[in-house]
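Problem statement: downstream parser choked on a complex file, so we are re-checking the raw output for the adenosine-5'-diphosphate run. The parser issue turned out to be on our end (a line-ending mismatch), but while we're here, posting the original submission so the record is complete.
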Amino acid sequence: MLGLMQNQPLLISSLIEFAARHHGDAEIVSRRVEGDIHRYTYRESARRSRQVAHALNALNLAFGDRVATLAWNGYRHFELYYGVSGSGRVLHTINPRLHPEQIAWIANHAEDQVLCFDLSFLPLVQAVHANCTTIKHYIALCDADKLPADSGIPNLQSYESWMGGQPGDYDWPTFDENTASSMCYTSGTTGHPKAALYSHRSSTLHAFAAALPDVMSISARDAILPVVPMFHVNAWGIPYSAALTGAKLVFPGPAMDGKSVYELIEAEKVTYAAGVPTVWQMLLTHMKPQGLRFSTLRRTVIGGSACPPAMIKAFNDDYGVEVLHAWGMTEMSPLGTLCTLKNKHDSLSDDEKMKIRLKQGRAIYGVDMKIVDSAGKELPWDGKTYGDLLVKGPWIIREYYKGTSDPLVDGWFPTGDVATIDADGYMQITDRSKDVIKSGGEWISSIDIENIAVAHPSVLMAACIGMVHPKWDERPIVAVVKKPGMDVSRDELLAFYEGKTAKWQIPDDVVFVDAIPLGATGKMLKTRLRELLKDYQLPEIQK
Ligand code: ADP
């Protein structure tokens, strides 16, 4: 017997229509590429998203055609999120930090028909357009009078003249909720990037889940600042969850330096912010010397890389801001776990609570996870045994777009992360599997080694890698960037490890570097670091 409830497909267009109808006057504020602040409401945003849908129809784009963006977090990008997907096309957000050759490669691979770009990326588009063989239309996200003359880019028009004259009403089409809505390529540190192809159903379910109190807890009472980019994994789904809840949205545009982010948080009374650790490091480095405080910020979700305990403590103890540590990946839309405490943790001491908060968190309903050994056998949830982390669920990838092999193992997606899970279901990442350091038959967590280094007051950033060792297979060393104007010696830093970890886990050496290479999503590129240190020899071997 089938249920007798309405069978309404979960479509992305319903989110913006809901926001327009029930939170019509809630604000969307954007710092624009031009430098000024733009503000309008969900009602207006929905109208302009419908205009975008009409403008795409006018280009004769077919259902399912890909529309690419090279854009910062801002209101026009937000309108494309809804106008493109809502009308049945697929939004392909391109990460502008990828190498130009990779950008052309993925635009061709995705068979993008249109490319919409912020003017900051004009030189990039000028450099790649000749190699983008499928793109027929270029749209600069600007007013008509800002359109660059003689750009050399064919079929270029300004966004405002392209969509501005279109009608503001539109009947969003209804279709199968499994239809593709957007796509995002992984950074591809090895080989070509691979694309996750999200659907209306997966994105809508993810938006519901992300808003839950134990997940990102997004509500109409929040003013939320996603510093996490809309060009990578849909800014963790915040553009969707914000519309689903009617939260005020504050977009930082291209200005992600500490000063600009701080000023925006204060000016727009932001209560909630989301970003990767490197962005928050810039914010704290800006605030500390001037003794600045937050007047409204209460929570921040931090993920994308392990959040160092020193950062969680600084936000919590110095600024009264609760840090929610999150873990996920492109192939997971991206959210998998979030770290919030349970009722039974209320009576724990602050130190004991902190130990839990440092973990990547527990699974969100919709994500199942397990850890397995090298033979695929499931490992216990004891908080100590570590193994390869596998996941499954309705917003987790089944196959890559145009993929040639099955990425799943018995229906589970191998994340490439190594983790422990404790009896309460809290997962903790110890490493990427390719970064694991094996010393004398035991594993050393590079994340633990890095976290200790960045807890030192003179250390800005640290990356731990394994070096080949004749006796122990591998020994860890730590590459360190010092904070500007601060000093620490190799021996002082090695002494700092004592008592904080087992003796045999203390790195064999510290290498001071000017910078640690970062990938397109702000993660440390250990492959590149290893290349830079290819002539390095462990002190013991030098002797
Ligand atoms: P990429 O495109 O570089 O793969 P993703 O955003 O998909 O970018 O990266 C996902 C990976 O980032 C995860 O598999 C994990 O290794 C790492 N990661 C994400 N969040 C965390 C976290 N909170 N702690 C540790 N590692 C994390």
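For whoever reads this later: The chain has two domains: 12-411, 435-542.
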